[in-house]
Every structure is written in structure tokens, then in C-alpha cells.
Amino acid sequence: MPPHRDEMAARPPAPQYDPDAPVSAAHRDHTAREPMVPRGGEAVPTASRAVRTGEPRRRVPRTDALLADPAVAARVAELGRDLVKATVTRVQQRCRDGALAPESVPAAVLAALPPRAATGRPVVNATGVLLHTNLGRAPLSAAARAAVAASCGTTDLELDLDTGRRGVRGAGTLAALRAAVPAAEAALVVNNNAAAVVLAATALAAGREIVLSRGELVQIGDGFRLPDLIASTGARLREVGTTNCTTAADYRAAVGADTGLIVKLHRSNFTITGFTAEAGIDELTGLGVPVLADLGSGLLAPQPLLPDEPDAATALRDGADLVCFSADKLLGGPQAGVLLGRAATLESLRRHPLYRALRADKLTLAALEATLRGPTPPIAVALAAAPDERLRRAERLAELLRANGIDATAEPSDGVVGGGSAPGVRLASATVRLPTRYAEPLRAGDPAVLGRIADDGCLLDVLAVDPADDRFVADAVLAVARCR
Ligand SMILES: *Cc1c(COP(=O)(O)O)cnc(C)c1O
Fold this sequence. Notes:
Pathway: Aminoacyl-tRNA biosynthesis; selenocysteinyl-tRNA(Sec) biosynthesis; selenocysteinyl-tRNA(Sec) from L-seryl-tRNA(Sec) (bacterial route): step 1/1. Its cofactor is pyridoxal 5'-phosphate. The protein is of the alpha/beta class. The chain has three domains: about 80 residues, no CATH class; about 110 residues, Aspartate Aminotransferase, domain 1 (Alpha-Beta Complex), CATH 3.90.1150; about 240 residues, Aspartate Aminotransferase, domain 2, CATH 3.40.640. It has a seven-stranded mixed beta sheet with strand order 4-10-9-8-7-5-6, with helices on both faces. A four-stranded antiparallel beta sheet has the order 11-12-15-14. A two-stranded parallel sheet has the order 1-13. Helix 10 links the parallel strand 5 and strand 6. The longest helix has 17 residues. The N terminus is likely disordered. It binds pyridoxal-5'-phosphate (PLP). The site of pyridoxal-5'-phosphate (PLP) has 14 residues, from helix 9 and strand 8.
């Protein structure tokens, strides 16, 4: 018996999706790691049986039935009902015009919808660079991700719930920072470390001089130069010393009535070796001018694996009035600039109008607090992992792939910290070597797997790959092999 016309309408009502809900279950499903299928090899999503039963031919599936189809409903949650409904109407019209068979309508609707948002596509970082600025630097810990999700709605961001009065913005985050670095009297969080430098330079030295060593005129990524950034605030740069040698006497000679700030900048992406001299922070205090140490990479305390990397606790103990660093480098948190140091100095920064334009948002503050208070973040876990373990992981992966007929071998490799941290440091790591032709389809997969092409091979380095993701790497390679 042919199905009655109203059978589809008699289905249980479709779940109510709020198109504006920021984190719905359906949306999360999209970022969940499913086995990877390279682009081009994607199967057209199948519509549910109920929608496909639109017999006889030329019967156009009804709008409510199409919108209730689980695959379509998932896109409603992501894209909003209006856009999906407009697409449904367009495809129904093609069907009415005879250009499309009724049973093809659900798949045609799905195919006509825009692809998943292109910004923030997940990428497995198999480059061997622990902190890759192009890949969004540090991955957040599970605790930080949960904190972001929990603070997406309205929160107590600037409200003291005990008194009902206005409170300090991100008070919990600032307390976590002070607890993590007891040498700091106070803390402030801005959009990124560049913003921290700009805020300090503007508030303390606009229209005056900032003394900086010629050995610390650093260019960071994408052509940005920190001296230009500092000069953009209206402060005048007073360069001292030479490229290789700057002494405390050089600073002393330059400091005068017009000096607003001394900046010590970490050479975070290069080293100077040979005949060199550098003044320590402890030699720059007592000149009557505040000292800002831009540490770059965000270690809070000394890290024995990276002995040449500066840290906040040591710089403050040495007498820096302020330190600043990125939260998404070695700290392993969200993009943010952290300023720590003297309470009075930080209060003058917080009261400066520019702070209003640079302050961090509630999601960042939540993620940063959870990073500081929660379990060791992924970057620190990866840094501390034993080199032997990395080699074992690469060997296990290569073995699994070989068992599936893929030409894969495990080899030791040199990883780097990257992202403006620990220049010159080599981290003993391991890679899986595949034929070069794997690189492109792996990069096009979802999630993308990004290795590096070197020595006539596609190298997948396990350094920055979460061990829990090893099986996704294997799945991705197997999927590429299957499609060949
Ligand atoms: C990375 C870095 C910066 C820039 O930090 P962002 O958080 O990317 O703005 C500034 N100074 C130093 C020394 C750095 O290493």
C-alpha cells in the first residue's frame, strides 16, 4: 500500500532548535573527531527514510518533513532556520519544475547549504612545531574548553554576586594569576602580548623616551616589528648598545628626565652567539624609571627543559616593575596578553583609556583561569613527554599503517618549540614517514592533518599531536590510502 500523503506530517514533531544557541549539541558534534574522509571522497549525506518515502514521483517533499530530517536539522542548529528554509524552498522549486526527482530533494538540500564555517576548522598539528602561530598556537586543555562553554552566556564578569555590586572584571582570573606568581602584586589581562606592550608604552611613556637595547630590536611574525609597535604609541625609542653587546652603563647613560620606561625584550625567535654582553634586569633597577620585561613565551617559573627561557617569577624577583607575555605560548592558554607586577603601576595602566580598547573578553578570561587552576595544559604535557615515548608512538603508528599496506616508517626527528619561544632548542621527537603524495589529501581532510614535507617524504611528527589523537592520524592516512 502506498504511504498516505500525510504520513510525513504525522511524524513526531521535530526537535526545537534554537538557531542562535552558540554551543548546541549538534554544533559540538561537528567538531567531534569522526574518522577522517579526505575532501572529494565525501559521501553525500543520506536523508532519513521518512523523507525518502515521498511517493509517488513528482510529489515534492514537504517543508516541515525536510526540516525535521536529522541531517537537515543538524544544519539548522548550525546555520539558523531562515537560511536552511530558504534553501529548502529553492530546491523544492527545482523539483516542481521537473529538474529534480522528489527522492533527490533531501540530498540536494544538504548539498546546497553552505559548508561548515571555514574559520576554526580543526587541524591535527603533525608539523613537529609545538607552538605554531599559523595553527592557533596552544590547544586549550579540556578544563579550559569547559570553562569557555560555561561562560558563553551571561556571567558575573564584572559583578560581585555576594554584594550585588559592580566587581573587578575577571576577578577570579586575576586571583589565579597572583596565586601562580606570588611575586606579582597585581595582574591585568589584555587581548595579546602586543597589546600589553602597547598599553604599557602608552600609559608610561607616550611623548617621552623608551630605552631599548639594539640587540633586542625584534621582528615577530608576519613582518611586525616590536620597535615599530612601541614607536606607534607616540613614545620615542632610545636605542642603546650594539647588536651584540649592551651593558648596564649603556642604559645608565641614556636614562634622563625624559625617560618614561626601560624595556627588556626577550629575543624569542633568534639567538646571538659569540662575543656578546647583555645587562640583567637586576642591573637596570634603581635608575628611577620603571622596567618592563617582555618575556614573550609565558613561563611563570623556571622550566628546566628550557633553561634559557625567561620566566615571570624570576624577572619580578630581579626587580622588574612589570612583566608581560602571551598566554597562548608556553603557558598553554588562550590568546591573551598578561601583565604582572607592581600594583600602582598596573593600576595606572588599568585606568588608561586605551585599556578599555584592549581588555580581554569573558571567554578568554574563563579559559585563562581554568588553564592556571586546572590540570597541566596540553602544551606543557607535550613538552615534558619522554622522547622514548614519542618514538614508540611513531613506531606504533607506522606498524599499523604498514599492516594496511602503506609505505610508512618511524624515524627520530628534531622538533622545535616555535611560536616565538625557545629559539635554537631542539626537542627529541619522532615522525612517521609517508610518500610525499599523502601530504595534500591529508591537509584537505576533516580534520586536516598537517605534516611537513622534507627529504622526499611527508613527515608526520608526533611532538604536538595529543596521544589521544594518534588514532585519528591513523584513520586519516588509511582514508587517503583507500581513496587512491
Ligand atoms: C610572541 C611575542 C610577542 C607578541 O605576542 P602576541 O601575543 O602574539 O601579541 C611580543 N613580544 C615577544 C618577545 C614575543 O615573543
